[in-house]
Amino acid sequence: MKVILLERITKLGQMGDVVDVKSGYARNYLLPQHKALSASKANIESFEARKIQLEATNLETKTEAEALGAKLDGQQFVVIRSASDSGSLYGSVTPRDASEVASAGGFEIDRKQISVVSPIKELGLHNMSVKLHPEVIVTIELNVARSKEEAELQASGKSIQELAAQAEAEAEFEIAELFDEIGAAADEFGDDDYTPAAKEEAVADEDEA
Questions:
Q1: Short-list 169, 167, 206, CA closest to 185
Q2: CB 185 within 8 A of CB 206
Q3: What are the DSSP calls for 6-67, one per residue?
Q4: Do 130 and 72 contact (CB within 8 A), yes or no?
Q5: Do domains 2-67 and 76-158 have the same CATH topology?
Q6: Element of type H or E holding 150
Q7: In the prediction, which pLDDT does 46 show?
């Protein structure tokens, strides 16, 4: 089906181009979204008569989008979600979620303007594209964490996996120190005299010291 584009469409063409597309794509998306008109003789003539006005409107909306994009591009928004210790989310973060946190941050963005390469199902920092205009696309970053404190750590460059590994290493170190203290006490008392009660007393003495 041939249509005349009313705005720039990625991989299709520029405003005013007459292109051939699949009928379903035209009827289900391009035409109802007012992004194109069927390329009939009457519609082509109508477009030519309105071309200057359409180009002026497009330029105006593009300028507004560029101004917003300059403020929005690179912005980071925090999304708090429940997740397992390994960092896997109980669900996923969607463009709707991104739209809500961006709006809460002072940027009115429709979820339909936001796209993600793959579903976000892990804690961490994730990028999403925001199409403010057919010719203006910017990137925002979602900081998905279980708490604001965790989000701050992630923003500083630490991943949840690194934090978990660090906590595990600290726990193992504390256990190793405890065994070292018990071993040292055993050497001091000797195997025969080192009863369980003496062991407990030695460890208590070590803690007080």
A1: 206
A2: yes
A3: SS-BTTTB-TT-EEE--HHHIIIIITTTTSEEE--HHHHHHHHHHHHHHHHHHHHHHHHHHH
A4: yes
A5: no
A6: helix 148-155
A7: 92
What homologous superfamily does CATH list for 2-67?
Ribosomal protein L9, N-terminal domain (3.40.5.10)
- Tell me the CATH class for 76-158: alpha beta
Which of left, alpha, beta for 97 (phi over 0: left; psi -120 to 50: alpha)?
alpha
Q: Would you kindly state where each structural domain of the chain is located, as residue ranges?
A: 2-67, 76-158, 163-208
CA dihedral 179, 185, 188, 193 (to 10 degrees): -110
**For 108, which DSSP code?**
-
Q: Which of 49, 52, 57, 54 is nearest to 36 (CA)?
A: 54
For 201, the token pair is: 């007393």
pLDDT digits (tens, 9 = 90+) for 34-63: 999 999 999 999 999 999 999 999 999 999
Average pLDDT over residues 70-79: 97
